[in-house]
Amino acid sequence: MWYRSNQDVFYKYGIGKEQIVWVNYFKDSMDEMKEKILNSSILMLTGGAPDLMMKRIKEKKLKKLIKNYKGIMIGYSAGAMIQLDSYHISPDEIIQNFCIRQV
Fold it and tell me: One Pfam family this chain carries (predicted)?
């Protein structure tokens, strides 16, 4: 379901399924992830938990690569938040207090 909803948005711009490459945190090696990012012209950062996303980006040593990415970078929700130098999180069912995070 998530792959489909993130992939379908590109179809109306003439980007086909065969042109979309996914970085898979659970399956791809760090080198595979870096190669996929470097060989892309659009990098889409999906939504989710921004703290967990940043933890995983740092764990896979992708922060510098993403920060210096030269193509088009888009994102929504957490994917948009982590593109900023800092962002805030409002309380919800998971986060109990308002907080500001530095990327």
Answer: Peptidase_S51
* CA-only gyration radius of the chain, Å: 14
Domain membership flag for residue 1:
no
**Structure tokens that stand for 60 in this block:** 């896979």
Domain span at residue 84 reads: 23-102
- Size of the chain, expressed as the number of residues it contains: 103
Helices (H), 12-96: 30-38, 50-59, 63-67, 78-81
Name which of 98, 95, 68, 100 is nearest 83 in CA terms.
68
**Total number of domains in the chain:** 1
Main-chain phi, psi angles of 50, to 5 degrees: -60, -40
- Within a domain: residue 4? no
Q: What is the pTM of this model?
A: 0.81
Residue 46 lies in a domain: yes
